[in-house]
Amino acid sequence: MDYIFDGSYSGYLCCVFEAFERKEFDSIPTTEKSMEINIFSEKRQIHTDVKKAMRILVGMEKILGAQETKIFYHNFLSDNQSEWLNGFRLIIELFRRGKLDIRNYGYPPVLRIHQTIKKISRERHRMKAFIRFVKSNDNLYTAIVEPDFNVIPLVVDFFKNRFADQCWLIYDIRRNYGFHYDGKNILEVSNNNDNEVQDPYQLEVDLDPQEKDYQHLWKTYFKSTSIESRKNLKLHLRHVPKRYWKYLVEKQ
Predict the structure, then answer these.
(1) 3-state class of 207 per DSSP?
(2) Among the four residues 8, 160, 182, 243, which has the most C-beta atoms within 10 Å?
(3) Whose CA is closest to 31, among 52, 51, 16, 15?
(4) Under 8 Å CB-to-CB from 201, ≥6 apart: which residues?
(5) How far is it, in rounded angstroms, from Cα 233 to Cα 249?
(6) Chain-centre distance of CA 12, in angstroms?
């Protein structure tokens, strides 16, 4: 049975609720976009109900504690159906047995979820380091990103604290949504058009008059501090993988 949900974490937890309510423990949580075609499987549309999701979340926290429960949220942000299924199976096991040693690395599903969140943590760290904002003429600082995992929710508080006096927008073009900080609150924003943005890094933006000057100074600084004889491209690529270069002004 395919459980089709809306792609939100609340919708994902509602899949757990429905699995217990209907005794369909072998169900597979998926979305319309990521669902694999299988003529032999049945499909059930799961409607997101915040109250049901909270009942599952509170139940998990009672057994595991709030900190350990976050592991499942981070696993969900992998944005991968296989990892969703692994987390779903572990939550089902948690409630059916009334316990789960989430630190038992000898248990393959638990080891797998920790390997996944390690990748998530690495991507989160890189987003903190590699996101670059461009200032438009309306004083909005915009960063367009395309992370491998859905880690933007994990870095918004970092940027809110770091740039508390600026209005900014971090937008994930792969998933067509982002977060806008208006100087007081962080709001989630999304593009209703599901079409992918074409060449997003080549889009013309009405820049602040001084933005290009600052970019030029930044590039000049990096060029002037670079020592040609000490270049180590292999080491450089290890710390700054090439897929992130499109975020960096100094690499353009």
Answers:
(1) strand
(2) 160
(3) 15
(4) 144, 246
(5) 18
(6) 15
Contacts of 28 (CB under 8 A, 6+ apart): 1, 2, 3, 41, 81, 85, 88
Give the model confidence (pLDDT) of 190-207 as tens digits.
876 544 444 444 445 577
Q: Which residue has the tokens 């060029």?
A: 223
Sheet holding 177-181, edge to edge: 134-135, 140-145, 167-172, 177-181, 186-190
Q: pTM score, two decimals? A: 0.86
Region 223-247 average pLDDT:
82
Whole-number Å distance between alpha carbons of 152 and 179: 8
CA distance 175 to 51: 26
Backbone dihedral region for residue 79 (phi beyond 0: left; psi -120 to 50: alpha; all else: beta): left
Query: Looking up tokens 């897929």, which residue turns up?
Result: 243
* Six token digits for residue 176: 């067509």
Residues in the chain: 252
